[in-house]
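seq:
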Amino acid sequence: MIRAGAVVLVAATSIACASGGSTPTIEPVDRTPSAPSPGAAADDFQAQVAAIKAMGPSVDWSEVAERMRSFVERHPRHAPAWYNLGVAHERLGEPDAAADAYRRALAVDEGLRSAQLNLASLAAGRGDREEARGLLEAVVERDPTAVQARVALASFRLSQEAYDDAEKLAKEALAREPENLSAYCVLSRLYLSKKAYRRARLVVAQGLKIEPSAPCLHFALGRVLLVEKDTASALVALERAVQGNPKLFEARFLIAETSMGYKAFERAIRHFRAVAENSPRPGSAWVNLGVAYKASGRFDEAEKAYLAAVDDPQAAPAADYNLGVLYLRHLERLEDAERHLQRFVKRVDGDDEDAYQLLAEIDQMKRFKEQEAEMAKEAARQQEVERKVAAEAAARAAESPPASEDTVEPAATAAPGAGAHAANGAQTTTAPNAETKAQPTEKAAKKPARTSKSRKTKTKKTKKPPPKVLEPDDFE
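struct:
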């Protein structure tokens, strides 16, 4: 008989937000279907099983699916074959085909518990919680010995915060199967949710005696130690949980969140990235990864992480807000900052004073930048004017001949008629000789030499004396 890899509903945690929430998910376990009916169909079935077992540990699930599909065409009333066909489709990532095969198995044998459990886990995986709950409840009501169905339903009820029902179902499972590790995991999470930390510790201690490396129990222990403020021991426990189950995303989330508080940014980045790249709901992980990148000064990578979350309905508001702050404070991209902050305000229906203050700051900065730009233009215009004036002055200086330092003012000339008066013996004012006129006075020597339009020296005019008239009394 095939030891087919079926799936059952087990405890896991959602990471839709940093505080965490709990929702069921699926995890592969081994489950054996019920025995085939006797006769020719049984012989045929055993032949198929032998051929599949011959593959060894590396099972070719495509071949398994083909063999089971061919078998049910020959024997359509064979429930185990339908069940194993469903398992093969699940392994091939074909949940719809798997669900159809499980329903065909249940139509033949409604008591085929493994088919019901796997169908319930598929329903939970696609978000149909009511179908999952109904299938599990049907198994529990019909079969008091259905331990795994009780554990799965306990996990489901825990996600709905129906703590009493979850505790009752988990304890019923342990009463039937005292070493059922999944039941211990459900109880440990239940007591953590109720903040009954001492009881959680007791459950963890009992479960670790059964399986010392159980990831779910090390995760629970890490949470208890965080509450007790033993951060170092808590991180060790959480790392052990992740080592045992790399897809235990809430444990990774707690490690990253705690590391951020101690500025261990690289460790936080490593775990946030693992969650973002592998979680079915990675939005919040991308936002937190962006926060870690920004805190470590890696702004371009922070931008990419935030942008990866802007289309996630739950994470988009935080992504838009953080992008606005990043663009405003670190990348100096005011237009982008304004656009994302406006999107954030729209998403939260305008109910955020911090965002409005940031938008007002952006408006003020944009006005200031406009003023700076205008002042820069005016300064450039003034510089151009000064350059042209200097160029014109230089051109004029180049056109004018340079003044000689030896140039002296010309000598004054005698007034016309002065010689005639001298000939008549009249008294005249004698003009200075050329040598005396040529020497500049001390005052003139101190004046700067004129380079253009030199003032002409005025010639001092000699007054002409009136003619002397002889009076009668002048005669003797």
